[in-house]
Amino acid sequence: VQGAPRNRGSFKLSYYNEYKSYLSFSMNQHCGQCTKPIDKSYIVYCEQKYHPQCFVCDKCREVIKTAEVLRTKDGAKICVNCAKQDDPSIGEEKVCYGCNKNIERQWVIGLNEKWHPECFKCVQCERVIDPKERFYKEQKDEKDVPKCTGCKLSKDVGDLDLDSKEKKCHGCEREIESSWVVALKQFWHHDCFKCSMCDRVIDSKESFHTNLGKPVCMGCNNDHFRKKCNVCGVPIAGTSLMYKDKNYHHACIKCYICDKSFTEEDQPNIRIVNGTDFKHADCKTK
């Protein structure tokens, strides 16, 4: 009708960010439940319109208040009471175990408690811990708190005072104000613990080697310090075949008689003929 007020008295209600619904006035609409025309007020839910009395739980068929509707993964609308049968914590306030503040959106489960993702961090170095990675349980102020693997393993700590408030980064020689890592018996900023060869930041969860007391990532260690196969050029990890000044992967060398590649188990039974050819000890020329 021309001149009629539009969206008069409309308002928005939400419940745990699970849905959006609007109450408004309109003409010539059809209800998504009973399919009958809507001549007065209606509820919009997931782009479908309903009579208020037809807006019912798909499980118990009871009328749902607009502020108490939840949507399942398959798109069904259910009331809070039905949802609680599957998850008793629905509708309850969630409090972060770390900061004791309410959780409004995402959370993680760790040590059988709920945390803000950014609050689940190592009690020692303050690095945020993914609950899926390995960590350890510690006690602080009579509460269970996580400790990352890097801080738990104390082989590189030496005589460092981990509780000291004055920590200096071994990389940049500046004071450390927040999070840090311990490696090579020194404190480091996370961004300062780098490979001395390629300058890439080494994550506290990955393995590394040292050269002249400086950290070297696994990639650079393979490229610069490991012996390479004289056939394929790939760094050799573990045992290898050595002859004069050359190194070989077992699989890269074949017996010149049977034409089969060697394995590490063949090592005691490998023979060299004429200074150039390899053979199994039990292989004989025809």
Detailed description of the structure:
With 286 residues, the protein is mainly beta. Helices cover 6% and strands 27% of the residues. The protein has three helices and 22 strands. Strands 1-2-5-6 form a four-stranded antiparallel beta sheet, with no helix packed on it. A two-stranded antiparallel sheet has the order 3-4. The chain has a two-stranded antiparallel sheet with strand order 7-8. A hairpin with a 2-residue loop joins strand 15 and strand 16 (186-188). The longest helix has 7 residues, at 80-86. The relative contact order is 0.05.
Outline of this structure?
This protein has helices at 80-86, 149-152, 218-224, and strands spanning 11-13, 21-25, 29-30, 37-38, 41-45, 48-50, 69-71, 77-79, 94-95, 102-103, 108-110, 113-115, 135-140, 143-148, 181-183, 186-188, 208-211, 214-217, 241-243, 246-248, 270-273, 277-280. It is mainly beta. A hairpin with a 2-residue loop joins strand 5 and strand 6 (48-50).
Task: Please name the defining characteristics of this protein.
286 residues; mainly beta; 4-stranded antiparallel β-sheet; two-stranded antiparallel ribbon; 22 strands; 27% strand; elongated; disordered N terminus
Task: Chart the SSEs and their pairings.
Layout: E1 11-13, E2 21-25, E3 29-30, E4 37-38, E5 41-45, E6 48-50, E7 69-71, E8 77-79, H1 80-86, E9 94-95, E10 102-103, E11 108-110, E12 113-115, E13 135-140, E14 143-148, H2 149-152, E15 181-183, E16 186-188, E17 208-211, E18 214-217, H3 218-224, E19 241-243, E20 246-248, E21 270-273, E22 277-280
Antiparallel strand pairs: 1-2, 2-5, 3-4, 5-6, 7-8, 9-10, 11-12, 13-14, 15-16, 17-18, 19-20, 21-22
